[in-house]
What does this fold into?
Amino acid sequence: MDHDQVRAFVHQQGEQWNAGDRDGFLATYRAFAPNGFRIELPVGQPPKDGPAVMDQLWAGYQGKMLMSYPVIAFGGDDEFAVIEKVDAPVDGQVHTRHTIHAYAVRDGEMLIRYFTDAAPATPATDATRDFLTRQYDHWNAGEREQFFAAYHAFTGDRFDVEFPPGTPPNPGKPVLEQLWQGYNATTKLRYRQIVVTESNEAAVWVGNEREVDGQPHVNNSIEFYSVRDDGLHIRYFHEGH
It folds into this structure.
């Protein structure tokens, strides 16, 4: 599964949704995942039969909203994530929102996880959102001590980073030290969307802003954070990988 195949699948199923081509839409999924697919919606609940979920979404929303995919980010050979742009005409105006989807394809079977609207606020989800925004803000301000203190306050030293996804996770602090040394002076992290689920997992769309040959350049990443009993697990997907 190479990057061109992934891009073709994502854009084709979006075009078929927009055109109302239900048979072609489902055929695209069958061709990409010949052993079937499941959908986790909402995230944190057991995955459901994919075609059954798509039937419900088609009946409820097709013709009422248009889909496009401005960001496709890659992990290992069998994982990718997308930003889905949803345009819905309401009373003569187009209302736009974004959702974040994670895909894993193994042995011809695909699991899709939909990070949609944020869950109702709880002390745990508020703490996760606060941690995420603070660590990006400290990065952008060049506040190294505060950046690492935010991690320590949230999770101690119990966190790891999987980059690219699909490779063994590494202890988190050395990875962040390496990223800080390599990129903090040149790259700002502009979080564009943060979704925290009831299961206290988070998906974040980040624009990595830097200058290339004197011109502004943005490489998007999609980051996933999972807070579990054994600590914080982070997975980074990037357009450029």
In short: Residues 125 and 200 are 6 Å apart (CA to CA). The mean pLDDT is 95.
